[in-house]
Design a protein that fits this description.
The complex is a heterodimer of chains A (about 270) and B (about 350). Chain A has about 270 residues and is mainly α. Chain A is about 75% helix and about 0% strand. In chain A, helix 2 crosses helix 12 and helix 8 runs antiparallel to helix 9. The longest helix of chain A has about 35 residues. The two termini of chain A are about 25 Å apart. Chain B is an alpha/beta fold and about 350 residues long. In chain B, helix 1 links the parallel strand 2 and strand 3. In chain B, helix 1 packs across helix 10, helix 6 packs across helix 7 and helix 8 crosses helix 9. The radius of gyration of chain B is 20 Å and the shape is globular. Classes of the chains: A mainly alpha (about 270), B alpha/beta (about 350). Chains A and B meet through helix 3 and helix 11 of A and helix 2, strand 8 and helix 15 of B.
């Protein structure tokens, strides 16, 4: 058995454990052991603000993705097979387009001379273009779009496994469709909700290109802080410390969630 | 500053391209690193190929949008694989102070020794010039366009949307000129005064751009009416037909420089190459292929650059006279590094 898994273990060691270990080491060692980098992360305003903003944006994105994703997954689950394949492929299609292309596409839609503003002006709804992009709003819109499949797919997978008989049973006992939904379907779909929310939230924490392009320079998320520490300020130690804190937050979230549902459900099918 | 010509992410790895190599002279070679894209192509034709031919050496090329982290790790590992890098001058100076860059012996580099002192440092030679200029939309300003940083700051006389670079270098200089400081009296920068002036314009800045490509897109799409941008980016957009223009007045003249990694594997050949790379004729060839000015002003004395072309270039003497020359020495001093760090909290507030 050990002989069989050892190549896999070696790959994990070489590609994950060593680089992450090296990263963590850099954050505490610079001409001797130091906690200076962490002191800075926890006491300096700019780090706090970035972490707070990142969590706010991630929460907003997760909430919106859930509101948009749940009905889509529900619909895909309740229509005949052919239709659900169509719906799911529409969800998955953007997956095959690069994040960069999608960010620029949103720029073309949202900017001052973009499609949406032009259209609204043509309809005379507005006289001045709306500020839809180069701010947090634009960042959230594009991020929701990019992460939506990560919400829909786990939801759909969970809904698929809810036996239809239960709904019929509810109806036969005299419950209205909305009551069966609230009392039977919704609770049974909660593991999917949790899985989807975890995926979206955690992925959003590390977003980089989208806020960089659509945030107008003011939406500084944690990942941008990491890159700026390296590129601009040449502080690998500070960058590593930020990265380690981010990594630990993600692990903490996974740990917390794993107490409610099995991690296999979030990371794969089971 | 290194994303100046970064058209995207795709070309980041141009890979090592072996140029004009034959078995006979394979012994003498260097690895040269630049920033990729149209810029590296232009210098390959104008400078690298002719230099390799003249010296009978092989120049291997590599490219990276931002060389600094790589310089640090390569030299830090004790076995650098690159010899010469073309990188923003500040990195050469900072690298020199940190023992990552070789000190140059100018007696072995006569072409550079003949250049103005302000164009070189113990660790670097200016290789090409570009400029951070005030660019504007000719649609918004068909006449009476903004012509100075004072105009840029004047939101009443010149209403419109504005963008600045999300970086303190050149932006602080512009702020001080907007506050009335003469271009040749900027250094040492009065950082407090510059940030105070920036606070003033901050509410009117729509976008703080982070890459050259982004600045070009903002101007091209009419997303902003005026912005600070690199001259080559603006003229590229204008060439594509956008109604945009820029002024060299109060521009900030900046350079990338050549420097040699400490412990470079082919040190002697690298020094020979440095001398050849700033040869006036090779230097004069560069602006024939791209909108950047030669690092060696003697290039304007060769007959290679036609007068009408010279007039468009940032380092042409009369254009240079209208501008402030960036002091990389100040930016890599402790005061400069402190100003860079202050930028992050300025942006977030």
């Amino acid at each position: 058995m050990l002989a069989l898994v050892s190549p896999a273990l070696l790959v994990i060691l070489a590609l994950i454990v060593l680089p992450v270990g090296w990263l963590a080491w850099q954050s505490i060692y610079h001409d001797g052991f130091t906690l200076e980098n962490y002191r800075r992360v926890f006491t300096e305003d700019i780090y706090w603000r970035s972490f707070a903003l990142t969590f706010e944006i991630s929460l907003a994105v997760t909430g919106i993705a859930l509101l948009l994703g749940y009905p889509v997954a529900y619909l895909a689950n309740s229509v005949p097979k052919g239709w659900s394949i169509l719906i799911l492929s529409l969800v998955v299609l953007p997956f095959w387009t690069s994040v960069l292309v999608r960010a620029y596409a949103w720029l073309a839609l949202l900017q001052r001379t973009g499609v949406i503003n032009q259209f609204l002006r043509y309809l005379d709804v507005i006289s001045e273009p709306l500020a839809l992009v180069h701010n947090t709003f634009g960042t959230v819109v594009a991020t929701v779009h990019i992460l939506l499949p990560f919400m829909v797919l786990p939801l759909y997978a969970t809904m698929q496994k809810i036996p239809g008989d239960l709904m019929q049973a509810g109806a036969s006992l005299g419950a209205s469709p909305s009551l069966t939904f609230v009392r039977v379907f919704l609770p049974l779909s909660l593991p999917g909700v949790l899985a989807g929310c975890t995926m979206v939230f955690v992925l959003c924490l590390g977003f980089y290109i989208t806020p960089e392009l659509l945030g107008g320079g003011r939406t500084v998320m944690v990942s941008m802080l990491v890159s700026r520490n390296v590129e601009l300020y040449n502080q690998f130690g500070a960058a590593s410390a930020v990265a380690v804190v981010l990594l630990l937050s993600v692990l903490a979230i996974f740990f917390a969630v794993s107490r409610f549902i099995s991690l296999d459900r979030i990371l794969g099918q089971k | 500053m290194t994303m100046k010509r970064n058209l995207g992410y795709g070309y980041a790895v141009l890979g090592a391209i072996v140029l004009s190599g034959t078995a006979a002279n394979a012994a003498e070679q260097i690895t040269f690193v630049s920033q990729g894209g149209a810029y590296q192509q232009a210098q390959t034709v104008a400078i690298l190929d002719p230099s390799a031919k003249k010296l009978g050496i092989t120049i291997n090329q590599d490219s990276i949008p931002d060389a600094w982290p790589a310089i640090k790790t390569q030299v830090g590992s004790g076995k650098p694989i690159w010899d010469v890098v073309d990188t923003p001058t500040g990195y050469c100076l900072r690298g020199g102070e940190q023992g990552l860059i070789e000190k140059l012996d100018f007696s072995k580099i006569p072409n550079a020794a003949a250049m103005p002192e302000a164009y070189r440092s113990p660790y670097s030679i200016s290789y090409e010039f570009y400029s951070s200029v005030l660019a504007f939309s000719q649609k918004t300003f068909p006449k009476d366009a903004p012509n100075s940083w004072i105009d840029f700051w004047d939101v009443k006389k010149f209403p419109g949307r504005r963008a600045l670079r999300n970086h303190p270098i050149a932006t602080l200089e512009a702020a001080l000129m907007a506050d009335g400081v003469a271009p040749d009296k900027l250094y040492p920068l009065d950082v407090d005064r510059a940030f105070k002036k920036l606070e003033e314009i901050k509410p009117n800045i729509t976008v703080w751009w982070t890459s050259g490509a982004q600045s070009a897109q903002l101007l091209n799409d009419g997303e902003v009416d005026m912005e600070m941008a690199w001259n080559g980016r603006v003229s590229a957009v204008a060439k594509e037909g956008a109604k945009v223009a820029f002024t060299y007045n109060q521009g900030i003249l900046q350079s990338t420089s050549l420097c040699i990694l400490k412990g470079a594997p082919n040190l002697e050949t690298a020094v020979k190459f440095l001398n050849e790379a700033v040869d006036p004729v090779h230097q004069a060839n560069l602006p024939l292929h791209i909108d950047y000015g030669p690092g060696n002003p003697k290039a304007f004395e060769t007959s290679v650059i036609k007068p009408e072309r010279a007039a468009q270039l940032p380092s042409e003497p009369s254009n240079a006279a209208k501008q402030a020359l960036m002091s990389y020495a100040w930016w890599s001093s402790p005061a400069g590094e402190a100003a860079e760090k202050r930028w992050a909290s300025f942006m977030q507030k």
